[in-house]
What does this fold into?
Amino acid sequence: MPFVLHATTLVSVFALVVYFWSGLRVARARAVHGVQAPAVTGPEEFERVFRAQQNTLEQLALFLPSLWLCYILYHNIWPAVVGLFWPIGRILYILAYSRSASARAPGFILSVIATLILLIAAAVGSVMGLL
It folds into this structure.
């Protein structure tokens, strides 16, 4: 298999591991703050951890297809390189949001920009392929 396929796969695995880790953080926050499932509200500290995980899931639904569409269209390393910024941004986002809702912007922006670049590149590549 080509190197770029493995690189793109590893970025995807990294993103999924970040999401799994965010779920573990929610489980821990439930135990610490006594929030029993299926409740999703509780102390603000719990709700920030829960929202960080939910937002990560929402963003994952845009990121992974964008990453793979770029891989399919371009077959080079740049989608994996750009995609690497998504899980890094998400880690920053999750850690910052857990401390303070107002601190979450840098990680959010980093991950959203990575997704937007990939999404726009996939759209451009598709249009160029039709021409």
In short: The mean pLDDT is 97. Residues 3-33 form the longest helix (31 residues).
